Amino acid sequence: SYHNWLPNLDVSVNVRDDIVARASFSKTIARPSFGNMYATTTVNGPPRPTLNGVNPTATSGNPALLPLESSNVDFSVEWYYGPSNYASIGFYNKDIANFVGQGSVEQSLFGLRDPSSGQAGSRSGTAATALAAIGQGTTDVNLFTMTALLIKNNGSASAASAEYQANMTGGNLNQAFVDQILAQYDITADANDPLHTFVTSIPINDKTANLYGFEMAFQHFFGDTGFGVSGSLTTVDGDVEFDNSQADTDTVQFPLLGLSDTYNVTLIYDKGPLSGRLSYNWRDEYISGANRDGTAHNPTYVEAFGVVDVSVNYQVTPAIQVTFEGLNLTKEHIRQHGRDSVNIYYAQELDTRYQVGLRYKF
Questions:
Q1: Taking the CB of residue 104, how many other CB atoms lie within 10 A of it?
Q2: Spacing of C-alpha 198 from chain mean position
Q3: Which of 22, 185, 218, 340 could form a Cys-Cys staple with 148, CB 3.0–4.6 A?
């Protein structure tokens, strides 16, 4: 449990009949999501032997997470120069503590042991030594096959090596023999195998951070024509970015995810029973993850994108309205990359979507 003092002070001053200045100070909290606080751990087996440099991964929640605390200061000036016309500009600053970042720890879990470590004294270690003695590398296939042969021959390295060599052609194992042996013998861990070391991704409360930026907005209608235009711009900056130049991939970084500059511009028609919007919404590149590839601690960036949407509404009667929407008219795609834009992780081609609706008010 926890207790928080959350003051809130708002001041509004009418500088003129059409200009309002505002200032506010507040302390706020945001509790971590249930997904981050689940007391569960999910483990993933390594796709290859850990002897060959691949560590298993895991994800875990953290029930001990503290709520995010933010001290907020906001200033804004608003100009209302017509019945439906206005322009505003504001500045905000947020000092944040306990925000949730992604950390990673290396730990054993649930007593799970590693049958592919190659550690001395383990079955896979004996297999690796036997392979080296006959001039064979510890590839995935070689290591698993020799380990299976050790199981078959009750741990005798000499018998396993002899059978291994008897089924080689031109310096390589016969694939039919490999398939037969691996189908007959499951390689499971025993007491001589070391515990698995899982690279576990876990949400943690990081140090304090500072965010600040500007917010601007406007709306203007051209007389009684029904035509208008509106727009907004939000900038965000601070000390919570990922340092791509950090060469030490063993160092865990804690950027605040999902932050980016945004703006939108909308052409408006609203008169009588007909109304419509044609909008362009743009979002700058932002980071969506900081612990990709396990121990490499690589970031995932979502590239900047902008979409054009249209909506039209027609009020047939006071109770009936027909609607139409066209989303992503320019068929913008989504791309994610790593430290460099050429390091593509994910790309999705998106098409335009159209929606037609009918609303009836009882």
A1: 20
A2: 20
A3: 185
Domain 8-109+198-360 part of CATH 3.40.50.12780: no
Cα 9 to Cα 6, 51, 74, 246: the distances in Å are 10, 60, 11, 41
The answer to whether 290 and 325 are in contact (CB under 8 A) is no
Query: What is the Cα 233 distance to its own chain's centre?
Result: 24
List Cα–Cα distances, 145 to 92, 106, 167, 244, in angstroms: 63, 29, 11, 41
pLDDT of res. 37:
87
Section 115-123 average pLDDT: 87
Q: Tell me, what's the pLDDT at 139? A: 87
What are the backbone dihedrals phi and psi of residue 355, each rounded to the nearest 5 degrees, phi first?
-135, 135
pLDDT of 148-194, one tens digit each? 999 898 889 999 999 999 888 888 888 998 898 888 888 888 888 88
**Secondary structure of the chain in HEC code, one letter for each residue:** CCCCCCCEEEEEEEEECCEEEEEEEEEEEECCCHHHHCCCEEEECCCCCHHHCCCCEEEECCCCCCCEEEEEEEEEEEEECCCCCEEEEEEEEEEEECCEEEEEEEECCCCCECCCCCCCCCHHHHHHHHHHHCCCCCCHHHHHHHHHHHHHCCCCHHHHHHHHHHCEECCEECHHHHHHHHHHCCCCCCCCCCECCEEEEEEEECCCEEEEEEEEEEEEECCCCCEEEEEEEECCEECCCCCCCCCCCCCCCCCCCCCCCEEEEEEEEEECCEEEEEEEEEECCEEEEEEECHHHCEEEEECCEEEEEEEEEEECCCCEEEEEEEECCCCCCEEEECCCCCCEEEEECCCCEEEEEEEECC
